Structures are given as C-alpha cells and as structure tokens.
Amino acid sequence: MQQSSLSAWLNKPSSVKQPPNIPLSQVVKGPLLPKPQPQAIPEATPSIVRQPLLRHPLPPNVTVSSLTPTFLPAFKRLLALLLPIPYHDKFFDAIFTDPTVANITLVALWHKSASAAASYSQNTSPQGYNGTPAIPTLVSAVRCKILETTFPEPPNAKSKSSSNRAENGTTTAKPTLYISTLATLPAYQSHALASTLLQTLIARAVKEYDIGGVSAHVWEANTEAREWYRKRGFRECGLEEGYYRRLRPTGAVRIVREVGVRDLLGEGFGQEVEGVMVEQ
Ligand SMILES: CC(C)(COP(=O)(O)OP(=O)(O)OC[C@H]1O[C@@H](n2cnc3c(N)ncnc32)[C@H](O)[C@@H]1OP(=O)(O)O)[C@@H](O)C(=O)NCCC(=O)NCCS
C-alpha cells in the first residue's frame, strides 16, 4: 500500500476486517483486571479478553485471560519445559503483586469443547470461576514488562510511521513493551495462540501505556523463535554476548519492533516497509 493512500485506507469501511464471530459469552465487559488488592494475592478474576483481528482466529475452544494463582503451577511448568533458563520466584510473584505486570501477562486456556469454553466464560465472575470443575489446560502464555526507556531509533531514517517520531527526526521518550517470556506447549502450537496473546498485549500497551515499540531478547541459537518474530515485523538490532551465562552459545539477539498503524487499529501483525504496514 502506498503512503499516500494510507488515510483513505484507514477511513474505508469496506476494507476494515470484521472481527471473528466470537460468542458474546467469551467477551467480558468492563475493566480487564480487578483493582489490585493490597497484601493478599487475589484468587483473581480470569478476566476473559477480547481477541484481536488476526489472519488465523483462535480455535473456539480457547479462551484468553489474565494469569490467576490457580494456573501458576501450569505456567511455571510451561516455562520450565520450553525455555532454557530458570526463573526466580520474584519473576512469578510480580505477576500478582505488580499491577502493570499483571495487566500485561496473558494466558491461553484450552477447553474440551467450544461449549465448555463458553460455559467457563459465563461462569467466570469477579470472584473467580464458580461453575462445574471442568478445569481447562493452560497451553500458552506471554509475560511482559514495561521498560521506561526511549524506544531505539530504527536504522531506516525515512520511516515516519512511529507515533513517537518528533519533528526533527529524533525519537521521543516512550516506554517499550518488553517480552519477558512467550511460549506455547508443543502439542498446541500453530493455533495462533502466541500471536493472539502477543497482539492483544501490544494493543493494550499502546492504549494504556503509550508504548513506542516492543522488544525482547532471544537466545541466538533459537532460530525458530527468531524467524517467528521476524515474520511478525521484528528486526534484529544486535547480539549481546554473555547474556545467557549458562547456555552455549551465550548470546542473545535483541529484537525490536515499532508500534504500527495496525497495532493502533487493534489489527494483527504486519511488517513495516517505508512507514507503511503491509500484510504478512
Ligand atoms: C515461538 C512460539 C511461542 C510460537 O507459538 P505458537 O502458539 O505456535 O505461535 P502461532 O500459532 O501464533 O504461530 C505459529 C505458526 O502457526 C501458524 N498458524 C497459526 N494458526 C494457524 C492456523 N489456524 N492454520 C495454519 N497455520 C496457523 C502461524 O501463521 C505461524 O506460522 P508462521 O510463523 O510461519 O507465520 C512457540 O513455537 C514456542 O513456544 N517456542 C518455544 C519457546 C520459545 O522459543 N519462545 C520464544 C522465545 S521467548
């Protein structure tokens, strides 16, 4: 798409994708998370999340929600199984004690059927799940944090798409959404789970934290994850040797992606070319 036609595209109703046919029961109205309770770790609201528009919609038996203590053991097992480094207790505690981290941590729950997913959503009240004990399986999760740093200047100086670009071409200070962990159980991969979780969080972080971009570190030997991110518009901007002291090789590739038009519209991933987001 040409830059000159971007405004027209944004205003053209016929080109705006309709959301997938999500049962109303899977959508929670009102705040996405309860106000954090002082002291105690809440047996929190799973707060089912509205799904973004993506090329592959989620299977109808999947719900997306915040992480509650009930699913913490499954979350820990997921990371231990799929990621090559251990995580400290503080890393997990922050999900329940830091309201920002809680707000930008999401899980995908796999139910036995679409009707079980709908039933789970309907029975999820602010006090938590109170229906029949058909506990779903936590199959995918993303945990992020907000870095209060200036988003890095991209190598392509012609790009004008970032909302944090100042008149003189420099980048103003905007926070970055940092992806701490992202993983899907192998048997449940290629169902758009990770894409949906990450895109949901990016859209949320754009709205609520005014982020300028998204970044992460990926182990240099993890070529599959590097390719996965590349297909979603991330670019590699440096190798940090010694980042993973216990791994061989030790390096982490730093990946970054600017916030784009599609993020602002709540649409799926695209790749930014000369300031215009294009379909993947
Ligand atoms: C990287 C990882 C998180 C991706 O998880 P995932 O849930 O399988 O991701 P998605 O389903 O969104 O995308 C995977 C592929 O399935 C495809 N896919 C998704 N839904 C699909 C569908 N309904 N039909 C066909 N293809 C589909 C996607 O297009 C994507 O392919 P592409 O990358 O060629 O575009 C997962 O492989 C993983 O856990 N890896 C190990 C941990 C790791 O390395 N994490 C990243 C470092 S922090």
TrEMBL record:
One of its GO terms (biological process) is mitotic sister chromatid cohesion. Keywords: Acyltransferase, Transferase. One of its GO terms (cellular component) is NatA complex. Residues 1-18, 158-170 have a biased composition (Polar residues). This is N-acetyltransferase domain-containing protein. Residues 62-260 form the N-acetyltransferase domain. One of its GO terms (molecular function) is acyltransferase activity, transferring groups other than amino-acyl groups. Pfam families: Acetyltransf_1. Residues 1-22, 151-170 are annotated as: Disordered. The keyword Cell division does not apply. It comes from Aulographum hederae CBS 113979. It comes from the Eukaryota.
